[in-house]
Specification:
Helix content: 55-70%
Largest sheet: none
Order of helices and strands: HHHHHHHH
Strand content: under 5%
Number of domains: 1
CATH topology: Rhomboid-like fold
Shape: globular
CATH architecture: Up-down Bundle
Number of helices: 8
Number of strands: 0
CATH class: Mainly Alpha
Distance between the termini: 30 Å
Radius of gyration: 17 Å
């Protein structure tokens, strides 16, 4: 008889926590997202600023936003967690949260940023480096994925007017690619 295994603790806990945050946001009619789970320009002396700096990747605007991000994280994340280990994956997620949050504040701080799409793009680009055998190799898959995903985000950022932060996607992707080129597997 087969049994269910909690196979990817970091990814599964992240998806679960993001789901709970979404439920809280719905229950509080948006209060929790605006208070804890979105980043925007505020005083650096406010302790909530630092909670938001990390917490903005846990908040999602609605169920569709949550499902789109979590589907990609659930597809790619367990493979990355198995290959690189939980600690390295957590490090990447925290770095993406901090860097994308700070860049957003400096460039567009009058609007709020929330969601895990920077992590999604980091994972996509990180996954495209997994075929690397030697430190001096750059996988061609990385080049193609970077052109398609990052190039697509640059195009959309220039020619599309929407509420999606293409810059967050680009930064997340660059962080994932960078880690993929320097990390050793576990």
């Amino acid at each position: 008889m087969k049994r269910i295994k909690w196979n990817s603790p970091v990814i599964l806990w992240f998806v679960l926590i993001c789901g709970l945050v979404l439920c809280l946001n719905i229950f509080t009619n948006g209060y929790t997202n605006s208070t804890f789970f979105s980043i925007y320009k505020s005083s650096y002396t406010n302790p909530l600023f630092y909670i938001r700096l990390l917490g903005h990747v846990l908040g999602h605007a609605n169920l569709e936003h949550y499902l789109n991000n979590m589907m990609m994280i659930l597809l790619v994340g367990p493979l990355l967690e198995e290959k690189y280990g939980s600690k390295k994956l957590i490090t990447i997620m925290v770095v993406v949260a901090i860097v994308t949050g700070l860049v957003h504040i400096f460039l567009n701080g009058n609007s709020a940023l929330l969601g895990a799409s920077g992590i999604v793009f980091a994972f996509i680009l990180l996954a495209s480096t997994t075929g690397r055998r030697k430190d001096n190799e750059i996988p061609f898959t990385l080049i193609l994925v970077a052109i398609l995903y990052i190039g697509g985000q640059i195009y959309e950022g220039i020619f599309t007017k929407d509420t999606i932060s293409q810059l967050t996607h680009i930064i997340g992707g660059l962080i994932g690619a960078g880690y993929g080129l320097i990390l050793k597997t576990k």
